[in-house]
């Protein structure tokens, strides 16, 4: 009877579906065995409440003589017991400590793969902000050489000198505007001559315009932003990708996009920036598909609101309060919050990862 009534309900629902034919709905209906499995777990889910009074534990400890000893005990469970939540610690360590070869050789295989040991890394926009901190992270994670491409001569020189001074690694700065294909090609060839073909490109150079309504957006400004954020990602990837292909080297390209490529920010209007970053994400996916055959991986990092100079504009102060209130972690990202992800995507630990867009936003896009 119950089965008959269920069938009737399915038939009447199917009648309400304008585009699905009845045989298609029948084909999709679960078999008797599947329905039994679903209803069985449903029945248990309602009645079963897990309330253990103790947690059995086994602890294995190496003893100094090399033999493993084990201990068994139980932890009593007290209903409603809670551990107090500590305030998050704020760490500020500006040192750059490069991974030494002898330390690398002693590391477990998993951690070795998570390093960028011996890799030549080009970072655009590395003169300041997120790019600069990702450059430091790559230096700490074992890079053989770091090359900063940036349009800002003074900041770029200063950043390269500082990173070399702090890490002792070979670091170069090349004044390159990511809109200039010829300059990029010349600079990438120079990297090949100096250090060998690049293993990694981190493309962080970018600009943002916000609080501009689409109906009054100056077309010249629109074109300029697209040229830097999107065409710049293409020109850089093309030049570095060609160098990797010519050397027959596997490589990793990391494009810094933005969560704005997947969502529309609130409350500021910034259609051009959002469109540019959506373009970067789709460009990255297309490139990943095309270049997998060359063993070149392409992934995007999509940050949420980050506490960098890009956002340190007095006009944005009021909006920052709204951004924080819409972020589950209730803060802007720190300038080094992309570091771990950048190193991971650059490293061989992510060797089966290509065409991904990883959002790193304190939870902003959850709401
Ligand atoms: N800060 C954020 O909240 C945020 C959020 C999401 C995505 N992003 C993206 O992260 C990247 C870095 O942002 P940031 O906050 O570190 O910015 P930033 O302004 O601090 O640094 C950007 C760097 O790019 C360089 N640059 C700009 N135009 C260039 C050009 N045409 N050619 C070469 N270099 C150029 C600048 O000189 C600067 O050193 C950008 O692509 C940005 O869109 C930032």
Automatic annotation (TrEMBL):
Pfam families: adh_short_C2. Coiled coil: none annotated. InterPro entries: NAD(P)-bd_dom_sf, Sc_DH/Rdtase_CS, SDR_fam. Gene3D superfamilies: NAD(P)-binding Rossmann-like Domain. It comes from the Eukaryota. The keyword Ribonucleoprotein does not apply. GO terms for biological process: mannitol metabolic process. The keyword NADP applies. GO terms for molecular function: mannitol 2-dehydrogenase (NADP+) activity. Keywords: NADP, Oxidoreductase. SUPFAM superfamilies: NAD(P)-binding Rossmann-fold domains (SSF51735). PANTHER family: SHORT-CHAIN DEHYDROGENASE_REDUCTASE SDR, SHORT-CHAIN DEHYDROGENASES/REDUCTASES FAMILY MEMBER. Belongs to the short-chain dehydrogenases/reductases (SDR) family. This is Short-chain dehydrogenase/ reductase. It comes from Diplogelasinospora grovesii.
